[in-house]
């Protein structure tokens, strides 16, 4: 999930719509409510955030260092000013990147992926057995052959791969894929997506690579 912070509701709603078209969950905040949420949000909610986008906010109303104190997710400033002084000021405030608007939503996603790779010192993909799972929106490969997946199933597989080695709950998967504020979708939809994903992976691999335990959650196994 991507969190957008901007004083203008029209802007946060616009980005929410654009990310939704790419199959990426997002949530928008005004600067005042955002600070309170960052301080009080449960750790599992913050783990579902893949990046923070900071737009037009009164100076000092949003602190990248406050965000960094609770999560390692990238913080990207969206700037409407084309000046060196403003760019340097934003970097000094603690953001990971500064992007000049207007910018295509896919460029933002690519920058988030690049920052995350550098931070984690990881490749652009994860290999688990015969699977190669990309983290930039591409379909996974099995034995070198692409496996086309609907965007929700692909993002679930990416999330499981990003958390390889540990089990994630249904709630964590839901929060990462749909966002923690989506009240229009039932959490049980995760079970349906994972059931379809497992069937496709089983057909290609000859075994089920998603280990599940009731009440404990899911994890990928080789």
UniProtKB/TrEMBL annotation:
Swiss-Prot/TrEMBL keywords: DNA-binding, Phosphoprotein, Transcription, Transcription regulation
Originating species: Ollibium composti
SMART domains in the record: Trans_reg_C (SM00862)
OmpR/PhoB-type domain mapped to chain residues: 123-222
Modified residues annotated as 4-aspartylphosphate in this record: 56
SUPFAM superfamilies noted in UniProt: C-terminal effector domain of the bipartite response regulators (SSF46894), CheY-like (SSF52172)
DNA-binding annotation, residue ranges on this chain: 123-222
Domain of life: Bacteria
Protein name: Response regulator transcription factor
Gene3D superfamilies named among the record's database cross-references: 3.40.50.2300, Winged helix-like DNA-binding domain superfamily/Winged helix DNA-binding domain
Annotated Response regulatory domain residues: 1-116
């Amino acid at each position: 999930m991507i969190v957008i912070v901007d004083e203008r509701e029209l802007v946060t709603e616009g980005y929410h719509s654009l990310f939704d078209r790419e199959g990426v969950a997002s949530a928008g905040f005004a600067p005042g409510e955002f600070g309170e949420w960052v301080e009080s949000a449960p750790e599992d909610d913050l783990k579902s955030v893949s990046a923070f986008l900071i737009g037009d906010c009164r100076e000092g109303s949003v602190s990248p260092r406050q965000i960094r104190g609770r999560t390692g997710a990238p913080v990207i400033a969206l700037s409407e000013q084309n000046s060196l002084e403003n760019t340097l000021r934003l970097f000094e405030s603690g953001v990971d990147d500064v992007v000049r608007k207007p910018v295509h939503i896919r460029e933002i996603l690519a920058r988030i992926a690049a920052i995350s790779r550098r931070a984690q010192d990881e490749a652009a993909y994860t290999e688990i057995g015969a699977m190669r799972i990309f983290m930039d929106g591409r379909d996974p490969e099995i034995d070198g052959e692409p496996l086309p997946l609907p965007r929700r199933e692909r993002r679930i597989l990416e999330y499981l791969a990003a958390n390889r080695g540990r089990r994630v709950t249904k709630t964590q998967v839901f929060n990462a894929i749909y966002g923690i504020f989506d009240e229009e979708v039932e959490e049980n939809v995760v079970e349906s997506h994972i059931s379809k994903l497992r069937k496709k992976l089983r057909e290609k691999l000859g075994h089920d690579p998603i280990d599940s335990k009731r009440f404990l959650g899911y994890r990928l196994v080789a």
